[in-house]
Design goal:
By secondary structure, this protein is α/β, with parallel strands linked by helices. The chain has a single domain, classed as NAD(P)-binding Rossmann-like Domain (Rossmann fold), CATH 3.40.50. It has ten helices and twelve strands. The longest helix has 20 residues.
C-alpha cells in the first residue's frame, strides 16, 4: 500500500473524485483540505481529515503545519480579484517544503474566442471574460513560482466539467434547462472521472513546468448536447432560450474546440468517456 500526504486547496468535485480514485487504488491517504467555513474535523469516503478555514480575508494558521508536511498539493480554488490566493498567501511556505507534486487546476477560458477553431496548449491566450483573465494571471503566478524556485508544478486546463451528479440529464429532468441555438458555437467538456484518472496517472509520470488541456474528443454546441439528452429521456418541446444574463453571455462569447492530444499522448491515456454520448449513456444507465 502506497502512502500519500496530500493537501487540497479547495475540496470540490474534482478533488473529491481524485481522493476516491486514490482510495480505489488502495493508497494510504493522509488528507488535509481547505474550506470557506470554519475549521472542522470531518470524514470523506471513510477518511478522517482536517478542513481548514481559508478565504480571501483570513486563514487558520494551523494549516501551515499540514501544508509544509504535504508531499502532494492540489489547487482547485479559483482566483479572486485577479490573484491566486494560494501563491499570494503560501508561496514562502511551499518554497521551504519537501513537496514533490503540485497541480494547479486552471480552465480553458484562458484561450478566449477562436471562432470555433481548434486550440492546443501553444495556441494564443486571449481571454474575453474577467474569469478567463484571472485564470491566466494565476497560471502566470504558478509558472513564475515554478521557474524561480524549481518547484514541481504542473497545470491542467479543464474544459466544462460534468459528473454523475451534475449533468444535463439531471437539469432536463428538473426542467432547469433551455436550448440555446447559437450558430457555430463549440464548447469542450470532460467527465470528472477522466480528470481524476489523469491526475492519478500524473503521480507516476510527472514533468514539472508542463501545461495540459483536459477535454474529451468531441467538442460540440450546447444545443446538440441538450437535444441528445432530451431524446434519451424522451422529453419533447424543449424551450428555446435567449442569451440574457452576463454569465451566459460570457460563455457564448467564446467558441473553440480544445485539443486533448498532448495529455493523451504524454500519459498514454485512453478516455473513459470519449464524448458526451458515452458519458450521458453511462449516467442514464447507472444513475437516472
Amino acid at each position: 500500500m502506497k502512502d500519500i500526504n496530500i493537501f487540497c486547496f479547495g475540496f470540490g468535485q474534482v478533488a473529491k473524485n481524485f481522493i476516491k480514485k486514490l482510495n480505489t487504488e488502495q493508497y494510504n491517504i493522509n488528507l488535509s483540505a481547505t474550506s470557506r467555513n470554519e475549521s472542522s474535523k470531518t470524514i470523506f469516503n471513510g477518511i478522517n481529515y482536517n478542513n481548514y478555514l481559508f478565504n480571501s480575508e483570513k486563514f487558520d494558521q494551523n494549516l501551515v503545519v499540514k501544508l509544509k508536511e504535504a508531499d502532494h498539493i492540489l489547487v482547485s480554488i479559483p482566483p479572486e480579484n485577479q490573484e491566486d490566493l494560494v501563491v499570494k498567501n503560501f508561496s514562502k511556505f511551499i518554497e521551504s517544503s519537501k513537496v514533490k507534486w503540485i497541480t494547479y487546476l486552471s480552465a480553458t477560458s484562458v484561450y478566449g474566442d477562436h471562432k470555433g477553431e481548434w486550440v492546443n496548449e501553444d495556441s494564443k491566450k486571449k481571454p474575453t471574460s474577467s474569469k478567463g483573465v484571472a485564470r491566466l494571471n494565476a497560471e502566470n503566478m504558478w509558472t513564475s513560482l515554478e521557474k524561480k524556485n524549481e518547484l514541481p508544478i504542473q497545470i491542467f486546463r479543464l474544459s466544462g466539467i460534468y459528473s454523475n451528479e451534475k449533468n444535463i440529464l439531471i437539469r432536463l429532468k428538473s426542467r432547469n434547462v433551455k436550448s440555446i441555438n447559437k450558430k457555430d458555437h463549440y464548447f469542450s467538456r470532460i467527465h470528472v472521472d477522466d480528470i481524476a484518472n489523469i491526475l492519478f496517472k500524473s503521480l507516476s509520470k510527472f514533468k514539472s513546468g508542463e501545461i495540459f488541456n483536459i477535454s474529451d474528443d468531441k467538442p460540440s454546441p450546447s444545443e446538440e448536447v441538450t437535444l441528445f439528452g432530451a431524446k434519451m429521456l424522451n422529453i419533447k418541446n424543449i424551450e428555446v432560450g435567449e442569451i440574457k444574463n452576463e454569465k451566459l453571455k460570457s460563455f457564448y462569447n467564446d467558441s473553440k474546440k480544445v485539443s486533448n492530444e498532448k495529455v493523451k499522448k504524454f500519459f498514454n491515456y485512453e478516455l473513459k468517456f470519449p464524448s458526451y454520448i458515452e458519458g450521458l449513456n453511462y449516467i442514464r444507465d447507472n444513475f437516472i
